[in-house]
Amino acid sequence: MKRACLSLAAASALALLASAAGAEPPNQSSVSMPTTQLKYRSTGVTDNVHGEVKAAAAYGDSSHGPHGTFLKMPGGFVSPVHTHSSDEWGVIIAGVFANGKPGSQDILLPAGSYFLQKAAEPHVSKCVSENECIIFLSQGGKYDFITAK
User: What is the distance between the alpha carbons of residues 101 and 104, in angstroms, rounded to a whole number?
Assistant: First the structure.
């Protein structure tokens, strides 16, 4: 029952994220895609210890504009301080995630949790669980990862 509630909450949040980001899925036929059919690709983002963050498109093109994208982050991953050009809305699907200003106390975000990361705000993203984190991101612009100087 708990898992069903989390799935329903995540599905509702995903719909809200898409509309909030102005990144509504394109006008197309309905889509049902099992997680086993998601095609994860390299993002080039790594902490040089735990591995690389991988991305799989749900809709849109994250390299050019509005999109919904699944991210897989290795357990224990800690990003360098970075920013993004567009606001990010995220829902944690699996694992325990933290996202905050450098030096701030972590607010733990288990599966079903939500975050908004404002554009141009320096922050650190962490997968604090031993197992990988899976996050659904929605942005009204392209995805970028700008490491702080």
Answer: 6
Alpha-carbon distance of 101 to 120, in angstroms, equals 12
Below-50 pLDDT ranges, the chain? 1, 4-21, 23
CA atoms of 104 and 102, how far apart (whole Å): 6
- Give the start-to-end residue ranges of the domains of the chain: 2-23+37-147
pLDDT (0 to 100) of residue 141: 93
Q: Could you count the other beta carbons within 10 Å of the beta carbon of residue 115? A: 19
pTM as predicted: 0.81
- Kindly report the CATH class assigned to 2-23+37-147: mainly beta
What are the start-end ranges of the E strands in 21-132? 41-46, 52-60, 67-73, 82-83, 88-94, 96-100, 109-110, 114-117, 124-127
Region of 37 please: left (phi>0), alpha (psi -120 to 50) or beta: alpha
pLDDT of residue 20: 47
Which of 44, 141, 29, 137 lies closest to 93 in space, CA to CA? 137
